[in-house]
Specification:
Blueprint lengths: L1 E6 L5 E2 L25 E6 L29 E2 L2 H7 L4 E5 L10 H13 L4 E5 L3 H13 L2 E7 L4 H9 L3 E5 L3 H15 L2 E2 L6 H7 L1 H10 L5 E5 L4 H15 L8 E7 L4 H8 L22 H10 L3 E5 L1 H15 L5 H13 L9 E5 L7 H4 L18
Parallel strand pairs: 5-13, 6-7, 6-9, 7-8, 10-11, 10-13, 11-12
Antiparallel strand pairs: 1-2, 1-3, 4-5
Helix pairs in contact: 2-3, 2-6, 3-4, 6-8, 7-8, 8-10, 11-12
Bound molecules: pyridoxal-5'-phosphate.
Length: 391
């Protein structure tokens, strides 16, 4: 298999090089408070049969990957939910089962291997929490040095996780957007690799593995995939996996993908409706999808339009309700950003065919933000000391 970069905006191709992040032509059109201009797609050229090995479809050789069991996550068949909702072919892909408990490991895994291949030891990034704790953990497995910029409101579990893995962590007095800018400035001055989402082409490429796995686990493509959306990198990654499968002649078409945003942080939904991105301050209980400027917004929107995808918004209340419902009816406890995808499914389910094969991506484990999860439950206040107190 041969690989190169292709600019998602102008289509120019480049050979893969760790010094190249955005298209050098299109980056000149970058405007303030707008999505990245000139995000690079990895393009593959070659053939593969149905029994392909996922590593063969990745642009870094298997020997460079760290010894961590990333991907191969379980596909749940939630019996109670299927019965309650009437969807007999509903599946939930549990990416909270990755080593650091979020989907982000798929990107970190490839970024780590990419850096290793080119002898780069230092990796820096900004994160709402999960990308950082992920890169810290995968970097620990690889023996790499990780520098992380976290917004001050990142859930404490994600901060603690990153520190446990031995990352150097800077807490930023501001939002994720400020952390993003600071981490880029740091990398430009300090060298090494920057793993910022969409800026590093391997982030989207690494995330494509979820679609390759779904195809292998189901023996076909789903009819509809629900995915929560912040920067829009997972969305583009999901598309990329299916696009690769289509290019290889293994599937006839790319399935319908429905991106779900939080109502109070829905820049992509607004841009789809209005035709342009407007930065607005955001806040949502789903911290992992709380983004003022979706860095991969332009690329993600192009995919949505090209392949007939949809974008919908859900309220924080819907997210919290969906989180508790998913936990209680399946045993799968996910964080709010992850539950957003399920909330989106619940919201539009009446418009879907009941026999459609539906996959909801569960992107992060619920224990990563137990404070938010408390909003959806009643904490028992009363203390008891004998059983007769309750009988
Ligand atoms: C990062 C993240 C998302 C959203 O991914 P984007 O690429 O930013 O759109 C969704 N859920 C969880 C748990 C995440 O960590």
């Amino acid at each position: 298999m041969e690989f190169c970069y292709r600019c998602s905006l102008c289509g120019r191709t480049f050979s893969i090089d760790p010094q190249l992040t955005l298209c050098p032509d299109c980056v000149k059109q970058q405007q303030k408070d707008q999505p990245l201009s000139g995000v690079l797609d990895v393009e593959l050229n070659g053939t593969a049969d149905q029994q392909f090995d996922i590593f063969d479809l990745l642009p870094v050789e298997q020997k460079y990957f760290p010894p961590a069991p990333v991907g191969g996550t379980p596909l749940w068949q939630p019996k109670n939910l299927r019965r309650e909702l009437g969807f007999s072919k509903l599946f939930i892909k549990d990416d909270g089962a990755n080593p650091t408990s979020s989907f982000k490991d798929r990107a970190s895994f490839l970024v780590s291997a990419f850096a290793k291949k080119f002898g780069i030891q230092d990796i820096a990034l900004a994160s709402t929490g999960n990308a950082g704790s992920s890169m810290a953990g995968i970097g620990a497995a690889a023996g790499q040095t990780i520098t992380l910029f976290l917004p001050k409101y990142a859930p404490v579990a994600k901060l603690v996780q990153a520190l446990q893995y031995g990352a150097r962590v800077y807490r930023v007095d501001g939002s994720y957007d400020l952390a993003y800018d600071l981490s880029l400035e740091y990398s430009l001055k300090n060298g090494g690799m920057n793993r910022n989402t969409a800026y590093n082409p391997m982030t989207i490429e690494g995330k494509k593995t979820v679609s390759l796995e779904l195809y292998q686990q189901l023996g076909r493509t789903p009819d509809v995939v629900f995915v929560s959306v912040g920067d829009g990198c997972i969305l583009s990654g999901v598309y990329k996996g299916f696009r690769d499968l289509q290019q290889l002649g293994l599937i006839p078409e790319v399935p319908k993908i429905i991106g779900v945003q939080a109502e109070t942080s829905n820049a992509l939904c607004r841009a789809l409706a209005s035709g342009r991105f407007t930065a607005e301050p955001t806040s949502t209980v789903a911290d992992s999808i709380c983004v003022d400027v979706p860095r991969n917004g332009a690329h993600a929107l192009t995919q949505i339009k090209k392949f007939g995808g949809e974008l919908i918004s859900v309220s924080d209340n819907e997210i919290i309700q969906a989180q508790a419902r998913l936990s209680a009816s399946t045993g799968l406890f996910t964080e709010p950003a992850s539950a957003a995808a399920f909330a989106g499914f619940l919201k539009v389910s009446s418009k879907l065919e009941q026999d459609a094969l539906i996959t909801v991506l569960a992107t992060g484990n619920g224990l990563k933000d137990s404070a938010s999860a408390q909003l959806g439950i009643n904490m028992p206040e009363r203390l008891i000391s004998t059983v007769t107190d309750i009988l």
